[in-house]
Amino acid sequence: MLYVLTGDNLFQRDQEIARIAGGRDIERYEGADLAPERLGEVLAGQTLFATDSVTRIDTPSANKAVWEALESWAERVSGDVIVVEPKPDKRTRTYKALQQHATVIDCTMWSERQSGKAAIWLRSYSSDRQVSLSSAQIDDVVHRAIRPSDDGKSTVIDQQLLATVIDQLAGAETITDDMIDTVLAPSMHENVFSLFGAALDGDVATVRAKIAHLRVSQEAHMAFGLLGSQATNLAALVLGGDRTSAEIAKDIGTHPFALSQLERYAAKLSRRDVARIIDTLATADERLKRSTAEPWTLLEQALLDIALSR
Q1: Cα–Cα distance between 123 and 307 in angstroms, integer?
Q2: Which of 33, 141, 256, 282 is exposed most, by the fewest CB atoms within 10 A?
Q3: Distance, first Cα to last Cα, the chain
Q4: β pairing state of 155-157 and 146-148
Q5: For 246, how many CA atoms within 13 A lie in the half-sphere containing its CB?
Q6: Each residue's pLDDT tens digit, 267-281
Q7: Whether the predicted model's global pTM rises above the 0.70 cut
Q8: What is the distance, to the nearest Å, from the Cα of residue 308 to the centroid of all Cα atoms in its chain?
Q9: Percent of the residues in the chain that have a pLDDT greater than 90, as a whole number
């Protein structure tokens, strides 16, 4: 049977490959190094010597001749063959042939909006390894596993990190928050939340200290994006009136945990306060795009303006 694994979630990809292989050996080929004339031998000749193994071809699209030749072999493979193609060109004839004759498995990283799905998976993974986490701890771990995507254009949930945390906690009878802190450092998402919270509390000293810490190791443009998400969530809570955070979260496509952390701030803010905060951040974002000023300096100025207004 032919399988095609797409997407950039390496943890899910490796899990799927292990499931398909079922303990059998895997004969691995790099598409860039594979000669087109060998493709028939690789795909259809593996049973000649009655070896019980799985064939894996990584990124065949890196070799144009191999990728094009793969089209004609899509319905003629012998045994189990896994094609790993993280970002296939879905417009090509080869991909369309693979779609028709192969089992396509999407291994895409979860987005921040899929926190609920990640929480369900983490609860199941923890249970399988006899690690007992409370609902609050599940949400906290998922929240900490949010990070910038590899291309820096969005935020994703790192499933490998989630699994690693549970594996490290396995064997402990009781899981405490301190134990989680030991194996899982705060994510950039969490750092930006605490930074925003300090500004909303009017804590100028903490804002300056956190900015000084973050500017050493973090990317300011991504921090701006995460800060914008926090401000959007805050505005949704304030404008939501008497509706619950769960109802609001469903409307805006985020996890209730992300809103629950902001509820204590929302309770103290008026619509005018939120409008002023949004305007301050929007102005900073506009300056970021149009000026040559140091990004962290612009972000610090905006957050200090918010803190001083509190």
Answers
A1: 38
A2: 33
A3: 63
A4: antiparallel
A5: 1
A6: 999 999 999 999 999
A7: no
A8: 34
A9: 58
